[in-house]
Amino acid sequence: MYEFEFERPGSISDAVAALKTDEAQALGGGQTLIPTMKQRLANPAKLVSLTGIGEMQGVCVEDDGALTIGGATPHAVVAEKAAASYPALAALAGNIGDPAVRNRGTIGGSLANNDPSACYPAAALASGAVIVTNAREIPADDYFQGMFATALEEGEIITSVRFPVPRAANYQKFDQAASRFALVGVFVARFDDGVRVAVTGASEDGVFRWSEAEAALGSDFSAAALDGLALPADGMIGDLHGTPEYRAHLAAVLTRRAVQAAA
Amino acid sequence: MPKDSGIGASPKRREDVRFLTGTGNYTDDINLRGQAYVHFLRSDVAHGRINGVNTDAAEGMPGVVRIFTGADFEGVGGLPCGWQVTDRHGEVMQEPAHPVLAQGKVRHVGDPIAAVVAETYEQARDAAEAIEVDIEDLPAVIDMKAALKDGAPKVHDDLTSNLCYDWGFVEENREAVDEAIRNAAHVTTLELVNQRLVANPMEPRVAVGDYSRANDESTLYTTSQNPHVIRLLMGAFVLGIPEHKLRVVAPDVGGGFGSKIFHYAEEAFCTFAARQLNRPVKWTSSRSEAFLSDAQGRDHVTKIELALDGDNNFVALRTDTHANMGAYLSTFSTSVPTWLHGVLMAGNYKTPLIYVNVKAVFTNTVPVDAYRGAGRPEATFQLERVIDKAARELGVDPIALRRQNFITEFPYATPVAVEYDTGDYVATMDKLEEIADLSGFAARRAESEKRGKLRGLGVNCYIEACGIAPSALVGQLGARAGLYDAATVRVNATGSISVMVGAHSHGQGHETAFPQVVAEMLGIDESMVDIVHGDSSRIPFGMGTYGSRSLAVCGSAMVRATEKIINKSKKIAAHLMEASEADIELKDGQFTVAGTDKSVAWGDVTLAAYVPHNYPLEEIEPGLEETAFYDPANFTYPAGAYACEVEVDPETGKVTIERFAAADDFGNVVNPMIVDGQVHGGLAQGIGQALLEGCVYDADGQLLSASYMDYAMPRADDLPFYSVDHSCQTPCTHNPLGVKGCGEAGAIGSPPSVVNAVVDALQSGGHKVDHVDMPLTPSRVWAAMQG
Ligand SMILES: Cc1cc2nc3c(=O)[nH]c(=O)nc-3n(C[C@H](O)[C@H](O)[C@H](O)COP(=O)(O)OP(=O)(O)OC[C@H]3O[C@@H](n4cnc5c(N)ncnc54)[C@H](O)[C@@H]3O)c2cc1C
């Protein structure tokens, strides 16, 4: 690790100010950033920890039924506090990494990092969530811009994430054997006005919506509605753990299973 | 009634108290006054010519003590290979130099180029980044068959090719085997890969070199399975330090699995640098470095042919294997695919004709050497897979085919040069059928099918050669060291005992099991006996722990030394009781005169030995301390039968292990609980190989599986509850305890049964799959189902 300065502000405005200095970087739970720094692959001059900001913590149900999660809320808190209001999301959070990762890692850090195999991006995209930052509100459909790429500007902080709560939802995660991130993960969310299906782990462009499946499920929310639908292997990730063909196949299997579990 | 102490009892492992309470003393816990730290700058290309290493800027960085490069080691020896293999044509193997720091070329990603010694680790790393290395990239050879093609880039320019040796065994059988295969009623052929693995002991390697100018003594603290082997190799071949000036200490070691047998560059470096700098130098491997610098395991590509007659008797076996050596010859690398692999090809079967061909190949990858099982898993895997395939081709029951061909009479001389002293393969198979509840399989399969899952059953046998090894024999075969072991039993005045052993415990539980033997022999309480190991200045010159040898070889030395103690203490007791030595009996810690009520206690005798006021000084010396060296007459041959039941999800290709049963014959068992634990651990590693683990390089020699994000280690929830049995016991005929060794069995015996089970499951689902290469990842199994 290289040397760095450390700040732990108590408010969003102080954090935003602290991030204005040269080479400063936000620190959530550090579950991605700290290992990267230990390997000397990242070299921020200053870390601005977001974990001391009260207004970025916690889970609450809004008047319209939407669920707002503070940007610095750890996965373990989401797993516990969202269990009643949005069980599929709580289950997803409760199955990220191991207890240490869940107690430190945050929703904001996960969405900011946008690892192509991460779980939260699938939930945010399938739920049609809104990513709220210190500067603006970004709909999930505009937020994810490819592997490790997002709409966030330099120094912009995810302060909270607002999830509309679907009528029914389910997340199917197929573990990559080594990392136990998603080799492929599929989040299916059924709303009154339609169905959204988001696939993580599979595409070289990061998390994406499977629109053919959404259309089919919109008129008939059953596994049978997906018969004959397949994703092309083209553009899927191929690595030690799975070929593009396998990932495309798996996405379809998991979508069916998610529908069955949600129905 | 299970015993509660002595041989056959299962006292809890006494060493676990310190391991589980954080009070162990591992090498990284050792910090010496004035210690400096070294960071190795490692090659990030697999093959390249070093045109220059400029350390000028780095030398001036804060905290830098000195920077070493290959040039500093020009007058120093290279890392030696401990086994010289002679090839089919009578030529000795090609043996390249292995410098401590790269000279002229780098040959794998991770090859150390420079070593920065600084006041702190971070300063050493900072300075390493300021070193300018001018490397000209050369094309890398990664694939073994490509490496042997004419015109392939050479890993070592001064060798004639990338072929280390072309070994044939038994060469005289070659034509007869070819002939038998040509004329056989049926020949089953299988091509397979035994993939490369990373050993991944929980504790990464560490070395601390120390030097005392006052008496010109060097000390190396290191994570080793065999401190005396390191002292021998490093002292004699690398640094030229005589034994009496070199101490090697391997304190608590957190697992080795073979990878800590070998002598590594970092150990030699720390010892060398400590002398040069006159201060201690410490290196602690990071996990990432371990992936690039610990010797790796397996990596064989094999074609095997099994010939059967019209009655399904095995008539001949022929194998053709390419074995990857990596870029340099690690200490025992050359023996693994030959003498630990070829000589096991008979397995449990009376195949009369066998020929094994192994081509060992240099590639631009991390060196490969022994990993739990070492050669024997590779032999077992191919043999047990090809037998399974033959049974399926012939439409016969795989267990029946095995039983029909079992060796049933012992001793049995195999056509591949070894003589099995004892065994009972029918008994272990019978036991397996019982504990695995094979008769209930059909019902379990039907139940799985109801849930849409394919269920498969895989069975295999294994045999291994342990208790390594008879020195005279291995000397003829090319070993450059003896493989005896040694123990000193030091009885103290009050009767307590320290046993100094050459074996090294790095998870095996010697500190618990060895005292059980001594205590039983003397009839005293186990708590009176302690084991001392791991320090060349405290223990006799033994050869350490690997090849499931500790109890069979070192334990035998300990028994012999204890017998000497008993003999001498009987003389003392006879003197004390004014009786004839021949009448003295030792039982429950009491010496008695046969036929009388006279007795003296163990403690009276030991005290007399050290306070010899009333003592036969004209006949025997005072004191009670004996040493024995033991060189085994033969290998030991543990054997067994394993069964695995899997479920395959036909939609995703995911394999889950539903049941696993292991029936082993380890001969006599000293501590059944420890043996269970050894089998459990071995099974975890074998199942890990079968389903999860794989070390993969890309075509340029970059390691793709370079961290736990991509290298899948087995976790508890990947594994079933095991059914383990070692009640079938045919005691070893040639060592005093009748023990055979249990450390590697699980890892040797389990991969074939897993793969056999998956193939069985897939065939039950109508898929025409007769082999899938390990690891059986969901992606691979799914692809196999697609045809
Ligand atoms: C062993 C292990 C297993 C894991 N398994 C899974 C898994 O199964 N599924 C999964 O989805 N993830 C997994 N993760 C990742 C984990 O969820 C991380 O917590 C997450 O990726 C990053 O969150 P963090 O809070 O730790 O962010 P950090 O590591 O602190 O930061 C990550 C990046 O986000 C930025 N950042 C952090 N917070 C904010 C914010 N509020 N606004 C803007 N930028 C911010 C940082 O500057 C940095 O660039 C695993 C991690 C580990 C170590």
From TrEMBL, chain A:
Superkingdom of source: Bacteria
InterPro entries (alphabetical): CO_DH_flav_C, CO_DH_flav_C_dom_sf, Diverse_Substr_Oxidored, FAD-bd_PCMH, FAD-bd_PCMH-like_sf, FAD-bd_PCMH_sub1, FAD-bd_PCMH_sub2, Mopterin_DH_FAD-bd
Protein keywords: FAD, Flavoprotein, Oxidoreductase
Ranges of residues in domain FAD-binding PCMH-type: 1-168
Pfam families cross-referenced by the UniProt entry: FAD_binding_5 (PF00941)
GO molecular function: FAD binding; oxidoreductase activity
Cleavable signal peptide: none
Protein name: Carbon-monoxide dehydrogenase medium subunit
Organism in which the protein naturally occurs: Cribrihabitans marinus
Automatic annotation (TrEMBL), chain B:
Residue ranges annotated for the Aldehyde oxidase/xanthine dehydrogenase a/b hammerhead domain, each copy included: 21-139
Record key words, sorted: Molybdenum, Oxidoreductase
SMART domains: Ald_Xan_dh_C (SM01008)
Taxonomy, superkingdom: Bacteria
UniProt-listed InterPro entries: Ald_Oxase/Xan_DH_a/b, Ald_Oxase/Xan_DH_a/b_sf, Ald_Oxase/xanthine_DH-like, AldOxase/xan_DH_MoCoBD1, AldOxase/xan_DH_MoCoBD2, AldOxase/xan_DH_Mopterin-bd_sf
GO molecular function, one term: iron ion binding
Protein name: Xanthine dehydrogenase, molybdenum binding subunit apoprotein
Organism of this sequence: Cribrihabitans marinus
